[in-house]
Amino acid sequence: NQPRLPPGPWRLPIIGSLHHLFKSPLIHRALADLARGYNAPVMYLQLGELNAVVISSPDAAREVMKTHDVIFATRPLSATVRAGSMIADGLGIAFSPYGERWRQLRKFSTMELLSTKRVRSFRPIREDETARLVTEIAACLPGELVNVTVRVATLVANSALRAMMGEGFRRREELLECITQAIKIATAQAVQRKLFELVDHAVEQHREHRSGPSAIDSKDEDMLDVFLRIQEEGDLGCSLDVGDIKAIIVDLFVGGSEPTATTIQWAMAELMRNPNVMQRAQTELHCALQDKSRVTEDDLGTTDFMGTDFRYTPFGAGRRICPGLAFSLANVELVLAMLLFHFDWQLPPGPTLRVPL
Ligand code: HEM
Predict the structure, then answer these.
(1) Is the CB of 264 under 6 A from ligand 1?
(2) Is 322 annotated as a binding residue?
(3) Which of ligand 1's atoms lies nearest the C-alpha of 65?
(4) Cα–Cα distances in angstroms (integers) from residue 330 to residues 63, 201, 220, 247, 335, in the given order
(5) How far is CA 310 from CA 61, 69, 259, in A?
(6) Mutation to probe ligand 1, out of 111, 322, 334 (largest number of atoms < 8 A from CB)
């Protein structure tokens, strides 16, 4: 009565296929090599006590993310996520099981927090943060080493923090440090507890501000303001307590900042490794901008990553497709365009490519 499993690499007792994943320092490359080697667009891996199936062809991806989307629409809950959700009293969006509650939270996030209109309202924040980055790099001496990884991660975290909590959050530095830790060591309960305590503090600070004399114009609202307004108005059609708010904010912060920063860092690393491609991109930018001295969002042409072309699904596809697509693209495109428009980049001499991206 053994289940018929898809093909996959040979397995050792207890660890199963885990040892195959260490053949490349980059896990996605190890997975791609294995799938190619076993000619397995649907491949079975045993990761310790977990069973995993890896999908590596556009047709198989369509089966999973479109045809049988509902079956795969609930993410498994690891012990780490379960521990975190106890601290937040809620599962947020990414880990809510597929069902009515997830649908409500998802609708709220796409219509209120991450809608095109809201993303547009954060434009001054993006342009301000990117201009600051350019000024800082311009102040470096010619030929001085610039740590793109760190600078980009800082810019993305600052932009996200300003969009979510506005300008006046008093424990800003503490929160940024805590998010960095949470991304690196998501398993540490103490870090998670601290993160949720800081978000709690931000909620309280926003509540105080909202009960003050000066009304907040809806176009100046940050995401926490939106949460609190909707909670007060009771318009969502479902309950939204502080636990939910904390879980969703942490979801958006931790789940949103890291992939956005990583995308920019990878793009810059690949461009520096391929100077001809970088030069072509720069020429395109200079032609498009001609007499302008700086890039604004109006100057960027858009690409559709909406999850309909299964050869390329950076944001996933189907019901669980990334709701932060517009929010992150706005950052990725502007930062890349500014970095390429204003500066020429090259890798420092010597072995450099083991950068912890
Ligand atoms: C370049 C940056 C980003 C990339 C590449 C990315 C990629 C993804 C992917 C692949 C998924 C899973 C989709 C699926 O299961 O089909 C996802 C889900 C998610 N992303 Fe993103 N993301 C990015 C930025 C963001 C940002 C900025 C936010 C929020 C501000 C965000 C919020 C979320 C959330 C909440 C989910 C879970 C959605 C659900 O389960 O319903 N992401 N993202």
Answers:
(1) no
(2) yes
(3) 16
(4) 30, 28, 18, 24, 9
(5) 6, 13, 20
(6) 322
- Dist. CA 68–CA 348, nearest whole Å: 47
Closest CA to 332 of 121, 152, 76: 152
Q: What CA–CA distance (Å, rounded) separates 235 from 210?
A: 18
First and final C-alpha spacing in the chain: 44
For ligand 1, whether the C-beta of 307 sits within 6 Å is no
Closest-CA residue, ligand 1 atom 14, reads 316
Q: Does residue 93 have its Cβ closer than 6 Å to ligand 1?
A: yes
Residue 256 alpha carbon to ligand 1 centre in Å? 6
Instruction: Provide the ipTM.
Output: 0.99
Indicate whether residue 210 lines ligand 1 (CB < 6 A). no
Please report the DSSP string for 284-297 in residue order.
HHHHHHTT-SS--G
Which residue has a Cα nearest atom 8 of ligand 1?
A: 315
- Is the minimum distance from the CB of 248 to ligand 1 under 6 angstroms? no
The answer to whether 37 touches 10, Cβ cutoff 8 Å, is: no
Token pair in block for residue 53: 């199936």
User: Looking at ligand 1, which residue's alpha carbon is closest to its atom 16?
Assistant: 316
213 exposed, middle or buried (CB, 10 Å; 0-12, 13-18, 19+)? exposed
Ligand 1 pocket, residue 263 CB under 6 Å: yes
pTM of the predicted protein model: 0.88
Q: Tens place of pLDDT for every residue, the chain, 357 residues?
A: 777 899 999 999 999 999 999 988 889 999 999 999 999 999 999 999 999 999 999 999 999 999 999 999 998 887 777 776 666 667 889 989 999 989 999 998 999 899 999 999 999 999 999 999 999 999 999 888 999 999 999 999 999 999 999 988 888 888 888 887 777 766 667 777 888 888 889 999 998 888 877 767 777 789 999 988 888 887 677 778 888 888 898 889 888 899 999 999 999 999 999 999 999 999 988 888 877 777 777 766 855 678 889 988 999 999 999 999 999 999 999 999 999 999 999 998 876 555 443
